[in-house]
Design a protein that fits this description.
The chain is an all-alpha fold. About 45% of the residues lie in helices and about 0% in strands. It has 10 helices and 2 strands.
Length: about 260
């Protein structure tokens, strides 16, 4: 089980007794969510992560996209967890705005004029606009992630073909290798294996790929690169090129690309 291989430290200790049980994955994820997946804890870590990012240099459009995607990721998680009060944090907005080059700050000044009280939500929309503009004139290359040596001396790859973001902030005691889920932010699984994503309604699941810039086939983020996944919908009679979790029964075949 890939989940078992990813568990380290306090996280593994917390679920050690459940590792040998049949169909243990849901039980393990429930314990991990209870101990390490509290929304407030995850949001705090996402805020710290984006605050610690280096300021994008004016000539580095790639860095601007990376920063913009992290801002959008934070805003998406705030919406998904119904923590809209964080949008009205003027100190956080000032910190993030201060990372932008002077010319981009002037663009924000013009952008925010149409809002009565612009906040982090509008700043996320502004960064989405910048990302779209940059991607229209250049090909985004995700930051390279080096293989890192584990405590046992073996190398653990932290980069996948799907270009998932590097997890630079991990819940206390949760030492894992691999990816960090873009929906629940718990390391060790992708969106298509996320129990929280599976529990939400079909309508919200269908909206998630566009909100979080995910591929509707593999549910990963690989930007403009073609999807290498061979997945097709497993619902009987469908077989369309979308993830099974995005199958909407009332819709006609092929409604979800």
């Amino acid at each position: 089980m890939r989940l078992v291989e990813c568990l380290r430290g306090a996280a593994r200790d917390a679920v050690e007794s459940k590792l040998m049980l049949p169909n243990a994955a849901p039980l393990i994820m429930k314990v991990l969510e209870k101990l390490f997946g509290k929304p407030s804890q995850l949001i705090r870590q996402l805020i710290e992560k984006v605050q610690k990012m280096e300021a994008p240099k004016p000539e580095k459009l790639n860095d601007l996209v990376t920063f913009g995607l992290e801002v959008q990721n934070l805003c998406d998680h705030l919406r998904l967890n119904h923590m809209n009060n964080h949008f009205n944090n003027p100190v956080l907005l000032e910190d993030l705005l201060g990372k932008l080059p002077a010319t981009r700050q002037l663009e924000w000044s013009r952008f925010q004029e149409k809002y009565e009280k612009p906040n982090l939500k509008e700043f996320g929309a502004f960064m989405e606009k910048l990302v779209d503009e940059v991607c229209a004139v250049t090909v985004y290359v995700p930051p390279k992630v080096d293989h890192r040596r584990t405590s046992k001396g073996s190398y653990s790859p932290l980069h996948t073909n799907a270009a998932e973001p590097e997890s630079t902030s991990v819940p206390t005691g949760l030492k894992v290798s691999g990816i960090e889920c873009l929906v629940c932010a718990i390391p060790g699984h992708g969106v298509r294996h996320c129990e929280r994503f599976k529990r939400i309604g079909v309508k919200e699941r269908l909206e998630t790929p566009s909100k979080m810039q995910l591929c509707s086939t593999c549910l990963n983020r690989h930007e403009s690169k073609p999807c290498r996944s061979r997945f097709t919908c497993r619902v009987a009679g469908c077989n369309d090129r979308h993830n099974t979790l995005l199958h909407d029964e009332p819709r006609s075949k092929g409604a979800v690309s």
